[in-house]
What we know:
It is globular and about 45 Å long. The model is unreliable at 1-9 and 117-124 (pLDDT under 50). The chain has four helices and four strands, in the order αβαββαβα. The relative contact order is 0.23. The chain has helices spanning 13-19, 46-53, 85-95, 116-123, and strands at residues 34-38, 59-68, 74-82, 109-112. The termini are far apart. By secondary structure, it is of the alpha+beta class. The protein has a four-stranded antiparallel beta sheet, with helices on one face. Pfam families: RRM_1. Residues 33-115 form the RRM domain. This is RRM domain-containing protein. GO terms for molecular function: RNA binding.
Amino acid sequence: MYNNPYPNPMFNNQYFELIRDNQQFQPQKESTHSLYVDGIPNDAQEREVAHIFRPYPGFQRVRLIKKQTQKGREYLLCFVDFDDAFQATVVMQTLQGYRFDKNDKTGLKIYFANNPKQEKQNKK
């Protein structure tokens, strides 16, 4: 687990304990510990993205994957991992619509990342 030496006091473990029973933050069947984040600008760096998610307990890492369409348009896939599905759920609910830049009109769209193992089990 990433040990943040400068934790944000607003999102510490005591905060998580206070909201643990709140229905809004309860992990659902499809919940995973990994989030897919849509809306990250193509010129974003891993450090910039990590600064958004790092203050939350359970943060493990950010993964940025550069891709390109057949027509040559570049885009980023962004995944953020946490210790468990509860922590990922809290972050997803809290940061949904977060505006990365001042000119960002739509904000981030955050989803649970697909879990291939879970999908295979559901098909059986």
